[in-house]
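Reminder to self: tokens first, then the designed residues, so the page reads top to bottom the way the pipeline ran.
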């Protein structure tokens, strides 16, 4: 049953052909008994009548027909398919697959010998990328795609598959040097081999060149040969020290310059110019030791300015121009990248391209720029360099043939772009071998028709850049699975877009240490060359270039909502910019949930509040205890002060009165008067001392203003009976800043000791006491205009000054003493009071 165009369905059964039209079945008469209906066309369908293939349009069969290949009977036909190019594919039972190319009017036959897994075909189909899929009876599924390369190998007449060198002659012949199979000549589809019997002593032909005059030269492991039209003759053989002979017989390179001069590079003898079959000039480490660091010559090129570039195997790159050598080596730091040169090419703009063991290098002007696998070149070993008519470079590498736009490389080298796209062609595209042969010259051939000939380890591969059909469709990206700690997660789909932006969501269980995404890109043209990039948005801002890796792993992703996006580009570098995006919800552990964190915060605040309240109450209670103790102590101090004042004061007063009474009533006696005077003086001192003690003990005096008042009163009384004039400079309204009894007493004792020293030692006529209070700092300055003294000559062991300093320092203060002979003495007390 097929669609015959115009909305008509056609059917075929046995020898009956019919159509379903406008609700009726109509039978079309035929003369044949064996019919097979084929695939639809734009206006009809294909039909096989007996062994004749023809098209039907409407209700008529066309006049043009084609006879099926021998042995193909309608009864053996199992499948029909018409591809996008209009070619008809016919599957058979046991006879393989046939392709009918209508434009060429030919049938092509494919069986197991051409790669099918089974000759019995059940079904045929084609995907969006143009791949043909063939279902077999017992052989599985086969993918079939038009090969990008035409291959010449031993099946097509070559003497050996391991090809080393290729050169095209002016007569249309292609000469192919092999490793062990001698030399092959390909012309008009026929291959002719030249071996030992044809003059080649060695079957290893490193290089072959068909020059402009039509001569063919062969470089072998055993010397240089020239073809005389019938056989090969040895050139320059014999003693290398004899004029006209090659310095080495292992010939790796043969090159003809614009003046038709022949240059021969050998494995160990350097470079030799050959004229009329004789070695005329040799350049190597013997003749030019400062230039030729290696006698292994691998590549030669004459540039547009007439300079000869010499690529060596380990000695770098050499330019021979105007009889002057210039050497470029990796150690120079100019950017050459490698000293092993495999291929040289100058493009249409004069840019020199250099194939090395460590990438592709271009020289534009005086600057070298290197391209390697670090910036997405598929391989670093570059053995062939071609340029097609569309501005693409074609590189032969150890991984296959690479196509890259020349301008893209130049823009990358200039820093104008951050990347470039390169396309790798390998066995999956029909390349004969896994890698291209290299290290010899000529290393390949570009024909006048634009086709490129590459030597490989499994034959010659020929590609026509014009007929390459790129895989223009970007690959469909699929996230296959998501694993949490190695266990696959079943995704959920949300129909309410307001609930979550993405419909497909993977819920990652709590405590996941390893999160893995597995994805793929559906492209069957070159699936191994599909390249990926991915990003876990809202977690990592970086887009990861994964190359052809099909999994992404993240460790210890914190709880939250994320989007995983993976993008892919096909073998031609055409990207699927949208890619595939899935949602990821990493669930938190219970202690990472919002309700737990809020509850923990509330509990912490409550705990802080309770702790603060407890500590505050405790501190208040301790303060109350201290205050109660202080109150009891102050009460006791008050009682002691009162008792001392009342009791001891009364008793001392009585002593004074009794002394006065004795003086009055006792007979006049000089000795008695002296004793009475001493008693009165001692009594007065006791009274003063008692007043000081009572003042010190009384808690009512534990303030700054009371201390200042007492010091003032004491100073006035102390200096009243002396010839020293006392000046007081005290603030009028001092605050009642609390002072401990110990601090108050220490300050007074220091002031008292200072005043006592002034009276005893200073011989001063005036003393000034200044008190300054700037919260929280108290400063007392005592200065006299006495005779002073030298601090250097003072006795540091005297107890008075030491005790004064110790008292102040124990209270957290500072005492400074300054004095000079004849300029008096100054004592400064500084102490910090409570705030």
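Designed residues (835 positions):
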């Amino acid at each position: 049953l097929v669609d015959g165009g115009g909305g008509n369905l056609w059917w075929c059964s046995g020898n009956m052909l019919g159509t379903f039209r406008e609700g009726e079945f109509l039978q079309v008469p035929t003369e044949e008994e064996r019919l097979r209906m084929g695939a639809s066309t734009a206006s009809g369908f294909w039909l096989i009548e007996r062994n004749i293939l023809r098209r039907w349009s409407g209700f008529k069969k066309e006049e043009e027909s084609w006879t099926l290949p021998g042995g193909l009977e309608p009864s053996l036909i199992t499948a029909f398919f018409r591809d996008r190019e209009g070619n008809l594919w016919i599957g058979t039972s046991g006879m393989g697959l046939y392709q009918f190319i209508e434009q060429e009017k030919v049938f092509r036959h494919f069986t197991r010998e051409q790669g099918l897994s089974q000759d019995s075909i059940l079904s045929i189909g084609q995907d969006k990328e143009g791949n043909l899929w063939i279902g077999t009876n017992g052989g599985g599924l086969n993918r079939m795609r038009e090969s990008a390369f035409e291959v010449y190998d031993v099946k097509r007449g070559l003497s050996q598959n391991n090809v080393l060198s290729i050169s095209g002659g002016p007569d249309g012949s292609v000469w192919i040097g092999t490793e062990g199979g001698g030399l092959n000549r390909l012309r008009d589809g026929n291959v002719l081999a030249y071996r030992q019997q044809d003059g080649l002593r060695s079957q290893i032909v490193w290089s072959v060149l068909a020059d402009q005059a039509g001569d063919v030269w062969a470089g072998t492991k055993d010397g240089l040969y020239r073809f005389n039209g019938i056989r090969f003759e040895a050139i320059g053989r014999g003693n290398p020290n004899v004029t006209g002979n090659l310095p080495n017989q292992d010939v790796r390179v043969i090159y003809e310059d614009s003046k038709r001069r022949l240059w021969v590079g050998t494995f160990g003898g350097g470079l030799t110019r050959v004229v009329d079959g004789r070695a005329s000039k040799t350049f190597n480490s013997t003749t030019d030791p400062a230039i030729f660091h290696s006698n292994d010559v691998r590549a030669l090129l004459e540039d547009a300015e007439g300079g000869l570039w010499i690529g060596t195997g380990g000695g770098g790159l050499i330019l021979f121009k105007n009889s002057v050598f210039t050497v470029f080596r990796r150690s120079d730091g100019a950017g050459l990248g490698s000293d092993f040169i495999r291929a040289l090419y100058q493009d249409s703009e004069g840019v020199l391209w250099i194939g090395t063991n460590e990438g592709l290098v271009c020289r534009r002007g005086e600057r070298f720029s290197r391209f390697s696998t670090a910036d997405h070149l598929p391989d670093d070993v570059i053995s062939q360099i071609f340029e097609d008519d569309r501005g693409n470079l074609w590189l032969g590498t150890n991984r296959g043939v690479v196509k890259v736009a020349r301008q893209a490389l130049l823009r990358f080298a200039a820093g104008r772009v951050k990347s470039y796209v390169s396309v790798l062609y390998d066995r999956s595209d029909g390349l004969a071998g896994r890698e291209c042969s290299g290290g010899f010259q000529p290393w390949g051939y570009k024909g006048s028709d634009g086709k490129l000939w590459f030597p490989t380890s499994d034959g010659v591969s020929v590609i026509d850049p014009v007929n390459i059909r790129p895989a223009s469709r970007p690959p469909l990206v699929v996230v296959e699975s998501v694993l949490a700690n190695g266990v696959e997660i079943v995704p959920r789909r949300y129909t309410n877009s307001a609930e979550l932006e993405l419909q497909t969501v993977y819920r990652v269980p709590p405590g996941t240490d390893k999160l893995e995404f597995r994805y793929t890109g559906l492209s069957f043209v070159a699936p191994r060359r599909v390249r990926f990039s991915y990003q876990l948005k809202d977690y990592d801002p970086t887009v990861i270039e994964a190359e052809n890796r099909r999994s992404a792993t993240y460790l210890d992703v914190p709880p939250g909502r994320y989007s995983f996006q993976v993008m892919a580009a096909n073998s031609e570098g055409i990207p699927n910019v949208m890619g595939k995006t899935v949602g990821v919800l990493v669930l938190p552990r219970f202690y990472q949930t919002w309700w737990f964190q809020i509850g923990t915060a509330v509990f912490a605040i409550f705990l802080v509040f309770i702790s603060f309240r407890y500590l505050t109450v405790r501190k208040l209670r301790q303060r109350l205890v201290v205050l109660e103790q202080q109150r009891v102590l102050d009460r006791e101090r008050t009682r002691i002060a009162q008792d001392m004042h009342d009791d001891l004061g009364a008793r001392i007063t009585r002593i004074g009165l009794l002394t006065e009474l004795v003086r009055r009533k006792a007979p006049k006696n000089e000795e008695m008067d002296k004793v009475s005077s001493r008693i009165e003086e001692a009594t007065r001192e006791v009274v003063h001392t008692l007043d000081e003690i009572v003042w010190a003990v009384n808690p009512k005096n534990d303030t700054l203003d009371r201390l200042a008042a007492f010091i003032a009163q004491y100073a006035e009384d102390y200096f009243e009976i002396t010839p020293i004039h006392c000046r007081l400079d005290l603030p009028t309204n001092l605050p009642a800043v609390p002072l401990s009894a110990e601090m108050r007493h220490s300050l007074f004792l220091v002031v008292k000791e200072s005043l006592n020293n002034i009276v005893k030692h200073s011989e001063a006529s005036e003393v000034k006491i200044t008190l300054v209070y700037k919260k929280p700092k108290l400063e007392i300055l005592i200065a006299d205009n006495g005779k002073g003294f030298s601090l250097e000559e003072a006795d540091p062991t005297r107890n008075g000054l030491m005790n004064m300093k110790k008292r102040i320092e124990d209270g957290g203060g500072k005492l400074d003493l300054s004095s000079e002979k004849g300029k008096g003495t100054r004592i400064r007390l500084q102490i910090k009071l409570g705030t």
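The radius of gyration is 56 Å.
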